[in-house]
Amino acid sequence: MTIFTEDFSTEPWWWQGFRPPEAAGGELPARAGTLVIGAGYAGTACALRLAEAGEDVVVLEAGALGQGASTRSGGQVSGGVNVGKSASRQPIPAHRKAALLRDAAAGFTLFETLLERHGIRCGYHRTGRVNGLWSPAHAAGWAKRLPELNEHARSEARLIDRDEVRAELGTSFYHGGVAIDRAGHVQPAEFYGGLLQAAQRAGARFIGTTPVRRLTCLPAGFRAETSRGTVTADRVVFATNAYTAEVARGLEPALRRGLVPVTTHMIATEEMPEDLARTVLPTNRGVSETRRVISHYRLSPDGRRLLFGGRASFFPLEERRTAAMLHRAMVARFPQLAGLRISNSWGGRVAMTLDRLPHIGGGEGRYFVAGCQGSGVTMMTYLGHSLAEKILRGSAEPVNSYDDGLPPHHPLYDGTPWFMPALGSWYQFLDRRERVAA
């Protein structure tokens, strides 16, 4: 029996709610105050804030508007749960970590504020999240983290035992978990569409299918040569994140060397019968895991489909093969879904940094935002908004704790993630070993 529906598609299921517009923006203007390269969450949030302040903003996107991770993600939202979890070899000083968590919490607040202020309807459920414990040994590390998460990020998080996880999620797969109440999930493409419309109403101009081929520094500003002509600007913002190596390879090499693009995959099931749907995630939580190579999943906004994602492979594979891998992982957690077929399978990229922290920064007219670590819905929206605040202030002073310059580099890394297959295989081995030991 095939695991695929007759109308199986490799497009994101989210695009049924909002499809990235192929043609948008009209003619390329000759000049702009601020030129934003990249029309995802970060670039759009930056443009929205600048336009609301009266700035002349043009946003260029190499493909369809929002076609990257912003309309491909898992759509889970929180504020700070992943910050500093495995940031670097050196521990983050307590005062800096507290600031990072407070700012991440502010990102969640901004997300909810934007929904209300702009009337964005995007299937938002503030039903919390459960991080399933892959191994009983993981509970100790989370117990140490909970006080700072609750104090600084206001996560409303607590450890729960195996029976509580079973009641919350409808599966006995995990050795307990962490319940995080200040979290939820959203239809990410519809959120992006609402954010885009808000920015356009504020006066920002968005032009799709217009890659920037060359950027030249002028005595007063910049000249961008594109596939459709040339535009000059007082300042430029790079908001290309995990797609920097592809769409801005020769434009911002220092940024490229600090970002590690990682492909993640997702599947959407066909609609579940009502009695079966009641057995899966009965409290409508989002779910992540405490292992290194995580799976993450949640229900669709109407509660009838399971959206299941993760790092299906660290090697390039076509969507039916990654779908089969994710289907096996889904059934391992929910055996009752063995006969459920897959309607959609797709991939997208997230940007990791070597210190596992997001970064914004810039000066002298050249700015950037990057490195969401897979928490893009709230973090990239917040960082784009924060970068706009930095531009509006016109000051070299940091606007928040993530405003600390380019992500760190390594002499053996040039922006091409040649090491990911080996590193991914090593992480999978460590995960299996911990699981067996449990």
UniProtKB/TrEMBL annotation:
Output the InterPro entries linked to this UniProt entry: FAD-dep_OxRdtase (IPR006076), FAD/NAD-bd_sf (IPR036188)
Which Gene3D superfamilies does UniProt cross-reference here?
A: D-Amino Acid Oxidase, subunit A, domain 2, FAD/NAD(P)-binding domain
Pfam families this protein is in?
DAO
GO MF assignments: oxidoreductase activity
What is the enzyme's class at the highest EC level?
A: oxidoreductase
EC numbers on record: 1.-.-.-
Q: Does the keyword Cytoplasm apply?
A: no
Which segments constitute the FAD dependent oxidoreductase domain?
A: 35-389
Instruction: State if Oxidoreductase is listed as a keyword.
Output: yes
Q: Where does the record place the region Disordered? A: 70-90
List UniProt keywords, sorted A-Z: Oxidoreductase
What protein name is recorded for this chain? Answer: NAD(P)/FAD-dependent oxidoreductase
Name the source organism: Roseomonas elaeocarpi
